[in-house]
Specification:
This protein is an alpha/beta fold. It contains 22 helices and 21 strands. The strands form five sheets. It has a six-stranded mixed beta sheet with strand order 8-9-10-7-11-12, sandwiched between helices. The chain has a six-stranded mixed beta sheet with strand order 17-18-19-15-20-21, with helices on both faces. A four-stranded antiparallel beta sheet has the order 1-2-3-4. A hairpin with a 2-residue loop joins strand 5 and strand 6. The relative contact order is 0.09.
Length: 700
């Protein structure tokens, strides 16, 4: 099946269907390989597999991309180019021959006024003229190297998808120990050791935070645990990982959660069938009723509804099909499924990314009282502080355990750094003193034995390993020229899509260069609409909006990264978005956000989520804004990057308006809190802690 002829034909079909995506030729080899390795059952699965490439910076709409995937899948199946037989019979296996990047001969980076190339960009030599036009020369050797690297990435993605489904298990042996203790854990991806000789112990009932820089391997470690890849793994433990949204379909939100209880569904279906002739099936029906009571089947809907409403779904939402919801809301459904299934160990990868502040606080309370074990990868410092009882710090292919929440870890870590520095300095002085004695009396026969003893002592001395602080993640926003207030003001504002569908009314709101404002409220209340009104993307139905004629506004949204062209490097993206800009100025500006050297020349598909987020930040403030509007700016950033963003925002000389679920960001930057309720925007008179108390008590 996986012959070159089939692969070539798949490439031809893909090319014919997605011309509008404007992808380079080498992408089609990679996409065909992905389809052959994991044949899709339907268009939805194909979109999940290659949708990001088809969208390519939103050159094609999401609806059109899904339609293309449906057509592609049908044609591939009709021509029998893919087979879905035994698709899910695969088990996680180690790669027989991992690709080691060290073995790939990389070209030297070149950076000239006329153009540049990069070791990882490799597939093409790009020349850019003064107007931003691009010409290419294909390097066949580099193309092969790139394709090998892409195949390796596809293999890793394939392994990542082989995650056990979320299912309720009513037959768990509750007498067995629920602690997880793994020794000598090694994690090797593509020939690179991400983790070496680590000891992991998850004590039942504890809540662990797994922290470390983006790209270090946290998600890979969580994935390997849920796949039970490590030696002597206790197979009786039920472990779920929540990291990807569910695929939208016709099934309702509530039923999607309830469907994790397969035994309940099967019993209810059997009960309905047997009730057609209840007299003849009385004995079996009694057995079914008894079992349904044993597994709390009759309270399942209520329990699932509590979880879903806590995560922000309305009563009407529970009946709607999942396909009607955005990816962020389907991510909430995936989280609800895992909480409802109640595993022994729950692994959460950035669970707050798609939640509003109210839902984050609900999840905090839920996990605190949840009796089982939870492991959390998150950039939300306050969330880690509130929920976690223990921290594992992932750094330099090692895991270091700390008792307590994130603040306790950071305090201990700082103390260790100071102590290690002192020990290293003291040892350096001792070494220098001994070395001076050796140098002075090395050729003195009378002192020979003393010299030799000191040399031996020096060789045996165990050097103190100094803890090196991570380099600071960089965010430096440009300083705007001063403008006199009022800069931006809305009076008696009203907005809606029709007279009977009002979203916001009676808006009285203003922003100046000294403003530090947080906008809060549940998802769907109108926060994003307000931001679009302020930025000028939408207009009021009624009321007045005044704006300084010299005012410049930047708007960073949580979807900003979707608009990056995957084929382009950060520098090329700037030249495309801002034709005629100076390359040196662009490189300097990107450097203000930690995107420097070869990183500025690599295509976006080789950058991490955090790196792409910083590119998006750099683009959004290129015009030197007086007011920055930020919609969920911390998504895809690690904790160090969030701290760097906080410092940069506090040093920014213009106005700041933030919509965020990150409590630490709001507390550290904002001095005003405005909330939206019942279609009205109101100022909260108090700090964030008081706002939390009002939410918890139901007074807001």
């Amino acid at each position: 099946m996986e012959n070159s002829g089939s692969t070539d034909r798949i490439q031809q079909i893909i090319r014919s269907k997605i011309k509008e995506a404007q992808l380079p030729d080498f992408f089609f080899v990679h996409l065909a390989g992905m389809i052959v390795e994991e044949p899709p059952n339907n268009g939805s699965e194909l979109f999940e597999l290659i949708g990001e490439y088809i969208l390519n910076g939103r050159r094609i709409s999401k609806e059109k991309a899904k339609e293309i995937c449906d057509q592609l899948t049908k044609q591939l199946l009709d021509e029998k180019l893919i087979s879905i037989e035994n698709k899910f019979s695969l088990v996680a296996e180690k790669l027989l021959k991992p690709l080691t990047l060290n073995e790939v001969k990389l070209r030297e980076e070149k950076d000239t006024q006329s153009g540049y190339s990069d070791a990882f960009l490799g597939t093409e030599k790009v020349e850019i003229d003064e107007m931003g036009n691009r010409t290419k020369k294909v390097d066949k050797k580099s193309k092969k190297e790139f394709e090998a690297f892409e195949r390796h990435k596809a293999e890793i993605e394939l392994l990542k998808r082989k995650i056990p489904p979320i299912r309720v298990d009513h037959n768990k042996d509750r007498s067995k120990v629920k602690d997880l203790h793994l020794e000598n854990v090694n994690l090797i991806i593509g020939g690179k050791a991400l983790l070496e000789g680590a000891n992991i112990k998850f004590t039942y009932g504890h809540k662990y935070g797994l922290v470390g820089r983006n790209g270090i391997g946290k998600t890979c470690l969580m994935t390997s645990i849920v796949r039970r890849e490590h030696e002597k793994f206790p197979m009786h433990l039920q472990i779920f990982l929540v990291e990807q949204e569910i695929v939208g379909n016709e099934v309702s939100v509530l039923q999607t959660v309830l469907s994790t209880d397969v035994e309940r569904d099967e019993l209810l279906q059997e009960e309905a069938e047997l009730n057609k002739d209840a007299d003849a099936n009385g004995i079996r029906l009694m057995d079914i009723f008894k079992r349904l009571e044993e597994i709390d089947a009759y309270t399942a809907e209520a329990r699932a509804s509590v979880i879903l409403t806590g995560l922000g779904f309305s009563h009407d939402d529970l009946k709607r099909p999942t396909k009607e919801f955005s990816g962020g809301w389907r991510m909430r459904v995936a989280l609800a499924r895992a909480l409802f299934a109640n595993p022994d160990i729950l692994l959460l990868d950035e669970p707050t990314n798609h939640l509003d502040l109210d839902a984050v606080m609900w999840l905090e309370d839920y996990l605190i009282s949840w009796p089982n074990t939870c492991v959390i990868v998150s950039h939300a410092r306050e969330f880690l502080n509130t929920v976690c009882t223990d921290i594992y710090h992932y750094k330099d292919a090692k895991l270091t355990y700390y008792k307590g929440n994130y603040d306790s870890f950071e305090k201990r870590r700082s103390e260790q750094i100071i102590q290690k520095k002192r020990e290293a300095e003291a040892q350096k002085i001792r070494v220098e003193h001994v070395q001076k004695f050796i140098d002075r009396f090395r050729y003195n026969a009378k002192k020979a034995s003393m010299v030799q003893s000191r040399i031996k002592a020096l060789n045996k001395m165990e050097l103190v390993e100094e803890i090196l602080e991570d380099p600071t993640c960089v965010f430096i926003f440009p300083t705007p020229d001063k403008l006199r207030p009022p800069l931006l003001k809305i009076e008696d504002g009203k907005f809606g899509y029709s007279a009977d569908k009002v979203i916001l009314k009676d808006i009285q709101f203003g922003v100046d260069m000294e403003s530090r404002i947080a906008i809060v409220g549940p998802n769907g209340c109108g926060k994003t609409t307000l931001l679009k009104l302020l930025s000028g993307e939408m207009e009021l139905l009624d009321g007045q909006q005044s704006r300084s004629s010299r005012l410049r506004i930047s708007m960073f949204t949580q979807h900003f990264m979707d608009q990056l062209d995957l084929r382009l490097s950060p520098v090329e993206q700037f030249l495309q978005d801002f034709p005629g800009s100076n390359q040196e100025a662009i490189r300097g500006h990107l450097g203000s956000f930690g995107i420097s050297g070869p990183m500025a020349l690599r295509p976006h598909y080789l950058l991490s989520g955090g790196q792409k987020s910083r590119v998006a930040f750099a683009i959004s403030v290129w015009k030197n804004p007086h007011i920055m509007i930020l919609d969920e700016p911390t998504n895809h950033l690690d904790i160090d990057a969030v701290n760097a963003l906080i410092i940069a925002l506090n040093n920014f000389q213009g106005g700041v308006l933030i919509v965020s679920h990150d409590q630490h960001l709001i507390q550290s930057v904002c001095d005003q809190i405005w909330y939206i309720k019942d279609q009205r925007l109101r100022k909260f008179h108090g700090d964030f802690e008081e706002y939390r108390k009002f939410i918890a008590s139901g007074r807001l």
